[in-house]
Design goal:
heterodimer, A: alpha+beta, 6-stranded antiparallel beta sheet, 5-stranded mixed beta sheet, rod-shaped, B: alpha/beta, 5-stranded parallel beta sheet, 5 helices, 19% strand, globular
């Protein structure tokens, strides 16, 4: 908090009370906030938007790349597996086509063939020849299976119907996983025989375990019931059922995302291997695959955060710098305006004094002549003392002196009220008093002045000096707009219980519509050539605001102008001012 | 030789006229331009002492009007205004014989009137 106090710009707590209803125009804190908010918004919002778009595009492309890579792996592995089975099946098919039943049934024939198969392909464990009735007529291998009747077994029925049979994986007597492949040879006369071979699965286990999988990846084969046909790293042992559901049949490679029972996201790729009961499955942990993305993501967010902080810092610094400049300029403007106001006030006092001197001169001239005449009478006519005429002359001198006194008093009462001091004021009387200054000019120029006021105008509590200035300025303004013989009408009516409305109307040259908005601006004048300072109405508006009133103007060129004032019956007392009668 | 004093202050002109009569100058007076025009139409005056600032018809305008009708008439202007400089420029342009700043010094006025009249008389 104390840091803020030290860093706080000088305009932060400034309030321009004198600006009245235009105070918001000089609320620098609000200006600062608006500048910061808008500039930062314009800079940061697109940045955030871009970052979000980039984030999603990158994430999606990495995810897509992962799916694609998994699909490629599944496809390639499936091709190897398919060839593994197709190769062995083709080898057996060749054997049964090359050798008839009799030849195969020769003692030692199967033994030689098994040896050849082992040598050229590998993986073969035993070989058996079965006649159409399902009896094993010849066998070579580690078990004693000669003469076994397979006619009632499922695999035999299947091979009889489909010519080829590949079994699920099973554990033999040695508890080693095996697969059976059987092929049928049908002779032209309709009889047939079957060659049955057992393969150990180590060959394709090696194929799967050799795959490059990366962190927590797993590749294995399941049968259509979901039982593992090859060992897996994380999903169980051979012939155990996997915890995931068996994926639905699809003729091509498929990759999808799924959560396992522990809620971990997995990418699962699979392919049904045609002509076998096997499904190849590749399972990867999504989080592991996205690890590089996690790092990139942190970098991206870090970059975004730093960028936002830099932008915000620059924006705040710039806004503070600019608003401080404006604030200082505005303070200078106010100081200048005060100076001008003071100068203007002094100038109007000077003008007033000149006017008074002129007005006082006439009665003084009369005094002079009357006194001169008394002197003449004594000089030219002896024994004039005690005469009636002498008395009349003395009275005339006294009357003129009184007249001079009245004018002097008006001048004094006008110049006394420079500071705000609240009094009970009779508005009609005050306006009459002010117009008294212009009486002579009105008389010379035959300007008709009327003041209308309803009976129920209350005395208002306000500042006499300011009111005098306001009405003098408005009357002067009207006089300069009026032709000789024009009219100036002032109406005073109570607007409501709290306000009094005064209209000052003239039938002078009027104000062009485009100037109406600017007429209360300082230094705006259309009479600069005639010596107008452009401050009279600006100061008037200031004074009206200072005593808590409002001023508006309506005018049409050639038809005159009407200034409407709304003055509070009781002026709001501001702090630091004391009311005095 | 007849003099007319014109000023909107009756007290001033009437007193001035009386004081001039003590000094042997026969002066008449009027309190407005209009009244002055009426009086001049009845009686011929040789010289007019006119206040510059008067309601409706000011001194300079009055001189312009009268000079057309009565080219022989001479004028002396009076003013209550402070600035002599303005006044001199104004009267020179308007073509007055002399000017006086109020309050008027009676001896000065008498002297000037006699001077203007004497000069005129001299010419005749």
């Amino acid at each position: 908090m104390s840091l803020f106090k030290r860093m706080k710009p000088q305009f932060w707590d400034y309030r321009d009370v004198a600006a009245g209803h235009r105070e918001h125009l000089f609320n620098f804190r609000r200006m600062w906030k608006l500048t910061v908010f808008l500039t930062a918004g314009v800079a940061i919002i697109p940045l955030i938007f871009l970052a979000i778009v980039d984030y999603h595009v990158t994430q999606e492309s990495i995810e897509f790349e992962n799916l694609l890579r998994t699909a490629r792996l599944v496809s390639n592995t499936r091709r190897s597996l398919f060839f593994f089975f197709a190769e062995r099946r083709a080898a057996l098919d060749f054997v049964v086509r090359q050798n008839n039943f009799v030849a195969l049934n020769q003692p030692g024939a199967l033994e030689q063939i098994l040896k050849n198969l082992k040598d050229s392909f590998g993986g073969f464990t035993d070989l058996g020849l079965i006649d159409p009735l399902g009896n094993q007529r010849s066998y070579v291998g580690p078990f004693d299976l000669l003469g076994v009747d397979y006619s009632e077994q499922d695999w035999y029925r299947e091979v009889r119907n489909r010519s080829v049979y590949i079994s699920d994986v099973f554990l033999g007597f040695r508890q080693v996983p095996h697969i059976v492949i059987a092929v049928k040879r049908t002779l032209p006369n309709g009889t047939f025989y079957v060659l049955r071979a057992t393969l150990d699965t180590r060959k394709f286990d090696d194929l799967l375990s050799g795959l490059e999988m990366g962190g927590q990846g797993d590749a294995f084969i399941v049968n259509r019931e979901g039982k593992l046909q090859t060992p897996s790293l994380y999903h169980g042992k051979v012939l155990e059922k996997i915890s995931l559901p068996v994926p639905e049949y699809a003729p091509k490679t498929r990759v999808f995302e799924e959560k396992n029972p522990d809620g971990i996201s997995l990418i699962i790729g699979y392919r049904y291997i045609s002509d076998t009961p096997f499904i190849l499955m590749v399972i990867k942990h999504k989080r592991e695959l996205m690890k590089s993305w996690q790092e990139t993501r942190i970098e991206l967010l870090f970059f975004l955060g730093i960028s936002m902080m830099v932008i915000l810092g620059v924006v705040i610094w710039m806004a503070t710098y600019l608003i401080t400049k404006i604030f200082v300029a505005d303070q200078n403007r106010i100081a200048t305006l005060h100076q001008v106001e003071y100068t203007n006030k002094m100038a109007s006092i000077g003008r007033l004094a000149a006017g008074v001197a002129h007005e006082v001169n006439n009665p003084l001239a009369i005094i002079n002549e009357k006194a001169g005449l008394i002197k003449d009478l004594f000089t030219f006519k002896k024994g004039y003392a005690g005469d009636e005429k002498l008395l009349g002359l003395v009275n005339a001198i006294l009357a003129s002196v009184k007249r001079a006194g009245t004018i002097t008093k008006r001048l004094l009462s006008f110049s006394r009220h420079m500071e705000i001091s609240i009094q009970h004021i009779d508005l009609r009387g005050l306006i009459g008093e002010v117009l008294g200054f212009l009486e002579k000019e009105a008389e010379y120029r035959s300007i008709h002045i009327s003041i209308e006021a309803t009976e129920d105008i209350p005395k208002i509590e306000s500042d006499r000096g300011k009111l005098q200035e306001i009405f003098l300025n408005l009357a002067n303004n009207a006089f300069s707009a009026l032709e000789d013989g024009g009219h100036l009408d002032i109406r005073i009516i109570p607007k409501d219980t709290k306000n009094i409305q005064i209209t000052v109307s003239d039938d002078g040259c009027g104000i062009p519509r485009e100037n109406l908005d600017r007429i209360f601006e300082p230094f705006f004048s259309t009479r600069t050539k005639q010596g107008g300072t452009g401050l009279g109405l600006s100061l008037t508006a200031n004074f009206v605001r200072e005593i808590g009133g409002e001023i508006t103007v309506d005018s049409e060129v050639g038809k005159g102008a009407t200034f409407t004032l709304l003055l509070p019956v009781v002026m709001e007392r501001k702090e630091g001012k004391t009311a005095c009668e | 030789m007849r003099v007319i004093l014109i000023d909107d202050e009756e007290e001033l002109v009437s007193t001035l006229a009386e004081r001039l009569s003590f000094r042997g100058i026969d002066a008449d007076w009027a309190t407005s331009g209009r009244q002055a025009l009426e009086k001049i139409a009845e009686i011929s005056y040789d010289i007019a002492v006119v206040d510059i600032k008067m309601p409706q018809i000011g001194g300079i305008e009055l001189k312009r009007m009268m000079s057309k009708k009565y080219p022989h008439m001479k004028f002396i202007f009076m003013t209550g205004h402070g600035s002599e400089e303005d006044f001199i420029t104004g009267t020179e342009e308007a073509g007055a014989e002399y000017y006086l700043v109020k309050p008027v010094d009676i001896e000065e006025l008498t002297e000037k009137l006699k001077q203007v009249m004497g000069w005129q008389g001299g010419r005749k």
